[in-house]
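Subgroup meeting minutes
Present: P.N., E.W., G.H.
Scribe: E.W.

1. P.N. recapped why we're keeping a running log of single-chain structure predictions: easier to compare across weeks, and new members can see raw inputs and outputs side by side.
2. G.H. added today's entry (232 aa).
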Amino acid sequence: MEQLQLKNSTVGDIVANDFRTSSVFKKAGIDFCCGGKQLFSDACTEKSIDPDQLENEILKITEEPVNEFMNFKNWDPVFLSEYIVNTHHKFVLKNLPELVFYTQKIASVHGDHHPDLVEVASLFEKINAELLQHLKNEEEVLFPAIKEVINKNSATAKKTIVSEITRMADEHEFAGGAMDEINRITKGYKVPADGCNTYRVAFKLLQQFEDDLHTHVHLENNILYPKALELT
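Output recorded in log:
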């Protein structure tokens, strides 16, 4: 990527072109999934980061040979949707019940001394309800519609794609914003001195869940959804 192209690109497009750059944005605290539509230059300004320094870090990564298997932007939308189901949906469905249990457990045990945990448990319960329905709608409505447009050029399926993506993008905003709030409340998942092993496990799982959600939402918001909308 040339300098002018990079600074005038959105964060989401940069990561879509080379997913390895996500590590740079994550380290800098820049949202590349729900905030992917933000220009690189604006994101740097918002975080008071030197854009030239961040650009150099990105260019170092992009100079290395690309593993074509991880070049998600070149994937067929049906294959990408199946990858998302088999990788990220499975991860979410496995971890949601565990995290509901752990966040409620530490809130009940430590909530008197750490009332923030009650808010964390409440927020995650909302994330749980939202994502369970969200994943179901993707697997039963949106993803089959993408396949139907590709195979049959169905006009009805095209309308489904547009309506579903409009709603699902808002659902991503909610889930991503709720996890950002949990991150803020827990000060980056910092376990206090009186935190027990369950406390540590809960925060570790929350951090892993947030990391996966960032990748999950990025693949949909910045790659799959635009590809699907192009079909309409």
